[in-house]
Amino acid sequence: MRDVIHDCFVDVLGTGPSEQQIDEVMKNLPSEIKLLAEQLGENDAEVRDTIYVWVNENINDFI
Questions:
Q1: How far is CA 22 from CA 3, 10, 19, in A?
Q2: If we measure between CA atoms, which residue out of 30, 34, 39, 31 comes closest to residue 1?
Q3: Is the whole-model pTM more than 0.70?
Q4: From which domain of life does this come (predicted)?
Q5: Cβ within 8 Å of residue 52, ≥6 positions away
């Protein structure tokens, strides 16, 4: 998940997040997304897309 979060920050902000920002995002991900990642695996396209959309919609909370 860390890679997806990193890539989203780069796409949206043009710069990578700090480790602390990644940790905060991971801590705040909805349980539905975490469960989906457990079921399908973190590298599944649906999981990556879901994480990307959520981070993109909530990125202002982490900058």
A1: 9, 12, 5
A2: 34
A3: yes
A4: Bacteria
A5: 4, 7, 8
